[in-house]
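hey
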């Protein structure tokens, strides 16, 4: 079981046309307890700092954004780069190192009702020894749908997805999506190890003029030997990206 306290803030300022620069900071305090001793969590030598710990990040972000809107985007691109560093504030096994995130999105209207959307996301955490709870995690309701967050985690995460959206009437739209991604340790990336993610869903626009919607998605992932196929149903506000 996990207990997490997190406090974070981020500020960007418009500097040039479509370009923003900013700073961010966050504090996280993790605590873990194993309810059933004797399993992987107890015996695995790969899990560092099993009881939890504290980390404070401070970083810089750069954004280039030409999207028509950030709710139901029909045209434009978005690129965000973030670098954060965690100094040795707390000592012991608490994390000291850096984090890099890159998020690229492209949107193109195919017709008055249909939109093609594409996203690539990269996240890496680097240090001499990274606690397991800070390793990038594959899967959530935004990217690599079908995998629950934390099933796979490692030093690096790379994922990409594409989505075709069709708005049949002002209040209702449908979408199909597909993508691939994986987590991997440094220098060990392989295209053959990429995991699939695909599915579809519906959007109900409670404010059609502003493009604000409730999203219903069903995502499907891989089928591992001896396990049921990984999948997930998601209800959320706004588009996945």
């Amino acid at each position: 079981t996990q207990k997490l306290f997190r406090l974070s803030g981020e500020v960007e300022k418009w500097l040039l046309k479509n370009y923003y620069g900013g700073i961010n900071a966050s504090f996280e305090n993790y605590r873990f307890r194993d309810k059933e001793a004797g399993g992987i969590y107890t015996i695995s030598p790969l899990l560092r700092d099993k009881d939890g710990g504290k980390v404070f990040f401070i970083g810089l972000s750069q954004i280039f954004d030409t999207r028509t809107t950030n709710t139901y985007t029909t045209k434009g691109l978005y690129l965000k780069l973030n670098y954060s560093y965690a100094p040795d504030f707390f000592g012991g096994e608490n994390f000291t190192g850096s984090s890099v995130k890159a998020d690229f999105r492209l949107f193109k209207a195919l017709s008055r009702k249909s939109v093609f959307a594409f996203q690539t996301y990269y996240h890496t955490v680097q240090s001499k020894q990274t606690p397991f709870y800070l390793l990038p995690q594959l899967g959530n309701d935004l990217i690599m749908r079908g995998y629950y967050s934390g099933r796979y985690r490692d030093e690096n995460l790379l994922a990409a997805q594409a989505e075709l959206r069709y708005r049949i009437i002002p209040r209702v739209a449908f979408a199909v999506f597909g993508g691939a991604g994986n987590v991997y340790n440094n220098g060990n990336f392989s295209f053959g190890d990429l995991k699939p993610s695909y599915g579809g869903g519906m959007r109900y626009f409670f404010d059609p003029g502003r493009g604000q919607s409730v999203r219903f998605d069903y995502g499907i992932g891989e089928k591992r030997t001896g396990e049921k196929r990984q999948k997930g149903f998601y209800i959320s506000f706004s588009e996945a990206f």
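The chain has one helix and 13 strands. Residues 182 and 194 are 5 Å apart (CA to CA).
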